Amino acid sequence: MKYICISCGYVYAPDAGAPENGIVPGLSFQDLPENWTCLVCGMGIDMFSEE
Known about the structure:
The protein is an all-beta fold. It has no helices and three strands. Strands 2-1-3 form a three-stranded antiparallel β-sheet, with no helix packed on it.
């Protein structure tokens, strides 16, 4: 499962994580910190949709 920022199109893939933002590979989208934001545009996790 992947999650796409509906604002800019950034894709969060749990298998890859976001190491540049301190998110280890394998961390599910639901387990991201509540204050986590899109690495590209800064939108919150509520602006992501499942793909």
